[in-house]
DNA sequence: CGTACTTTTGAATCGCATCAAATCTGGTGG
DNA sequence: CCACCAGATTTGATGCGATTCAAAAGTACG
């Protein structure tokens, strides 16, 4: 990871007050890298410009669950006021990621009400997205979950795949075999189209 | 619903700055009442002192999904900056609920950085709870979901039931039959104890 | 060209949804 | 007080769909 002084992503630049920009460092992270580990003390928060990162929790029985899969936006933003991380942050595709020191963010937020308000807006969005994800996971069949995803997260049914269907499967909480079968069945039904890196829902 | 001027719940009184207290009204709501409906404009947010409320989304195909089941704390807090509700708020057990006008909250938050900071703390907690719920719903078997709930939400494995197992079932995203069977099986296994209104996980 | 990973297909099994029906419960009105 | 009703609880039978295990083929990358 080589920190550089690239221009901040517009979305991030707009959210963060100017005096924080200098504290941000942007770098390339490779697949397999861990941004943070369960139990460690949060120092930075992360903003994904491109690539793919998952939040993963390792259960007592060894099994792992993906809490979130993110290809753009904040990761670990809830660590703002946490003493410890409650999950792992893992890079699963080469990613361009901006690090922002938490302490500075906290200071700036206490001083700048407008910044705090924007931050609350972002958290509200996140809460809604998570509620939708819960709704999705409460669906029984794989096809229902996939269609729910395409309808709620996609743009008019079009949804960009990150690093393949396998990672999507874990986000949907199903095995990759089940998702592969579901996709190919929907393609045969002409309910779904798959072109390079995209899923497109076909309304009929 | 008869608004009264009861003392605010301590948790709420601590969160809200003093000048907002006067705008809060607390009342009793009966089962079946709707606090708000999908598509309507948010005017109040709600704090549950006791009882039980669910956030429910009605799907296009008519099926319903419970986004959240709450017996204490805020409901509809993400509506702070929303133009419309994206789900229904339904009372499913006689509840004591405090209403707080959103406009006043917004005003107070812009003026009071400490209040904004406390609000962010609350939202961060909510985000974490939702991530745990997603993790839970990504588990395959009913028993795994139930144990996950008892381990993460309960106090040393003890978890209070609200209005029965049926409502718990919908929170876990399974049919009530499956949950009933799972509970009675775990009781036979001596993995779980059920006394009046409580589930207690037995570690062995 | 070999290695690691994804994608794909197959077969067997298991757990849950579904449909059905009986019992139990608390609360309401006669 | 009792009959009655709505909803919760419980048990049973059946079928579907996903998991699981296995294996082969495709693909990216050093």
Topology:
Two copies of one chain form a homodimer.
Chain A: H1 10-15, H2 18-21, E1 25-29, E2 34-36, E3 44-58, E4 64-70, E5 73-75, E6 88-101, H3 102-111, H4 113-137, H5 142-153, E7 158-160, H6 165-172, H7 176-188, E8 192-195, E9 198-201
Antiparallel strand pairs in A: 1-6, 2-6, 3-4, 3-5, 3-6, 7-9, 8-9
Helix pairs in contact in A: 3-4, 4-5, 6-7
Chain A binds a DNA duplex (30 and 30 nucleotides) through helix 7.
Shape of chain A: elongated
User: Gyration radius of chain A, to the nearest Å?
Assistant: 18 Å
Strand content of chain A: 25-35%
Helix amount of chain A:
25-40%
Named CATH topology of the largest domain in chain A: Jelly Rolls
Instruction: Supply the number of helical segments of chain A.
Output: 7
| Number of discrete domains of chain A | 2
Q: Name the poorly predicted regions of chain A.
A: 1-5
Total number of beta strands of chain A: 9
Label the CATH architecture of the largest domain in chain A: Sandwich
Order of SSEs of chain A: HHEEEEEEHHHEHHEE
Distance between the termini of chain A: 47 Å
Mean pLDDT of chain A: 88
The multimeric state of the shown protein is: homodimer
- The CATH homologous superfamily of the largest domain in chain A is termed Jelly Rolls
Secondary structure category of chain A:
alpha+beta
């Amino acid at each position: 990871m080589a920190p550089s002084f690239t221009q901040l992503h517009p979305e991030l630049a707009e959210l963060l007050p100017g005096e924080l920009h200098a504290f941000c460092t942007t770098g390339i992270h490779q697949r397999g890298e861990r941004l943070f580990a369960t139990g460690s003390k949060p120092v930075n928060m992360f903003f994904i410009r491109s690539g793919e990162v998952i939040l993963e929790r390792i259960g007592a029985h060894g099994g792992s669950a993906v809490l979130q899969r993110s290809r753009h936006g904040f990761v670990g933003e809830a660590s703002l006021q946490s003493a410890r991380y409650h999950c792992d942050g893992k890079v699963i595709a080469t990613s361009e990621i901006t690090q922002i020191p938490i302490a500075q963010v906290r200071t700036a937020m206490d001083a700048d009400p407008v910044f705090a308000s924007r931050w609350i807006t972002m958290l509200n969005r996140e809460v809604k997205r998570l509620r939708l994800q819960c709704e999705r996971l409460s669906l029984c069949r794989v096809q229902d979950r996939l269609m729910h995803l395409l309808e709620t997260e996609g743009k008019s049914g079009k949804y960009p795949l990150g690093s393949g269907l396998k990672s999507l499967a874990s986000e949907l909480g199903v095995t990759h075999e089940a998702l592969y079968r579901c996709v190919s069945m929907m393609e045969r039904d002409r309910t779904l189209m798959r072109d390079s890196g995209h899923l497109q829902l076909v309304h009929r």
